[in-house]
Amino acid sequence: MSQYRYIVLGAGRQGTAAAYDLAVRGDAACIVLADANLAAAKSSAERVNALAGRRVAEAAQLALGSVSDEELASFFRGADAVISAVPYFYNLTISKAAVAARTNLCDFGGNTDVVWQQLELDKAAQEAGISIIPDCGQVPGLGNNLAVYAMELLDVPRDVMYWDGGLPQNPKPPLYYSMTFNAAGLTNEYKGDAVFLRNGEVTRVPALTEYELIHIPGVGDFEAFVTSGGTSTCPWTFRGRLRTFQNKTLRYVGHFEKIKFLEQLGMLEDEPVSTNESPVSPRSVLHALLERRFRAAPGERDVVIIYLKARGEKGGKPAEVTVTLVHRYDERTGFTAMEQTTGWHGAVVAAMMARRQTPPGAKPVEVAVPAKAVVEAMEERGIRCTVAIEPLE
Q1: What is the pLDDT of residues 91-115, one digit of tens each?
Q2: What angle in degrees, to the nearest 10, is found between the helix axes of 112-119 and 91-101?
Q3: Could you confirm whether domain 139-338+380-391 is CATH 3.30.360.10?
Q4: Which CATH architecture has domain 4-136+339-370?
Q5: How far is it, in rounded angstroms, from Cα 140 to Cα 96?
Q6: How far from chain centre, in Å, is Cα 71?
Q7: Which of 85, 220, 245, 319 is the most exposed place for a label (fewest CB within 10 A)?
Q8: 29 contact partners, CB below 8 Å, separation of at least 6
Q9: What tens digit of pLDDT does each residue of 279-316 get?
Q10: What are the residues whose beta carbons fall under 8 Å from the beta carbon of 238, sequence distance 6 or more?
Q11: pTM above the 0.85 mark?
C-alpha cells in the first residue's frame, strides 16, 4: 500500500530516475520533485507520472541558494525521506536541515571531504531518530555495497580492487566519452587525490596516475587510471580488516591521453587567468565546452561497468571472488544505464530509510545498508551481477 512521502531535490537526470523508482517500487504516496527551475521540475514529474501510470509526482520550485536554513527544514518536514540529487557542495546544508526536520536523507555525493562533514552529524541524527547516508549512486555507492558483498563471500578478505565506468555504447573521438552527469562532477574526479588502502594503511594517490590496460572477460579492453572520490569512506571503514582497497576509472582507449593533456595545459585549475577581457577560470571554461560538445544526447545509449576482485581465504585456502556488473540503456523507460545505477541505488536506500530498515545516525553507505539486500534489490530492477569464486594458486 502506498504510504510514504518522498522529496527529491534536483529534477535532472538522476533525480528523475530516482523519483521513478520510488514511484513504482518505493510504496510512494507522494513524491515532490523540487528544482530551482520550475519548468524542469514539472517536466520531470510529468515523465514520472506517465511511466508510473499514476499521479504520484508533483513539482515544486526550490532554489537552494536563496532559501534560509529554517525554510529548508520546513520544506522537509512531513517527508519520510529526502534524496539530494543536486551538486555536492549543497549536501552539508541539506543534511543539517534534515536533522532539524527529523527527516531521513541520502544523496549522490561527489566529494569525500563534504561526506566527512556530514558524518560529523552522527550524534545529532541519532538524537533526531533519522538516517543520513551520503555518497549513494553508482560509484561510490553501489560500488561500496558490491565490495562488502564480495568480502562476505570470503571467510577472510584481504584485498579488494575494482574498476568502473559509465561509457557510451558507441564511442566517438576525440574523447570517446559522453557526459551523463554534471561537468563539475566529472572534472572533480580528475583533480586531487584518491584515497586507497595500501599495505593496510590509508594512502593518498594523485588522480590521473597509475595508468593500466585491463581486459574484462566478455566485455572488452579498456584503459584504467586513478580518479578521486571513488572509494569514499571505505579505506577508513576497512582499515584493520583489509590490506588493499582501491578503485580505478574505466575509459575507452585514447581518452586518458586527451584528459592528461588538458591537465598539463592547466584546464583543470580553478585559479583565474588573465585575458584581454577579464580574468576567467580555466576549469569553468572547460565545463562550458564539455557541456556544449560532449553532453550525452537524449536517447544516447550507454553502458555502466563495475568489475571487482576480492582476494583472501575461503575454506582455509586462498580464493578470489570476481563480481562483474554490466548494465545498459533501458529501451522501455528511456533511462540511461548511469541514471539507473545511480538514481535507482539512491531510491533503494531512500525506501529502506522510509521503511526504517537503516540505523539512525549519519553513517557511510557501506556500513548503513546491508550489501546483500542492495544486490537483491538491484537484481529486482534488472541490474544483475555475475559472481565467480575460484581458488588461487
Answers
A1: 999 999 999 999 999 999 988 899 9
A2: 20
A3: yes
A4: 3-Layer(aba) Sandwich (3.40)
A5: 22
A6: 27
A7: 220
A8: 2, 3, 4, 5, 56
A9: 889 999 999 999 988 888 888 999 999 999 999 999 99
A10: 160, 197, 245
A11: yes
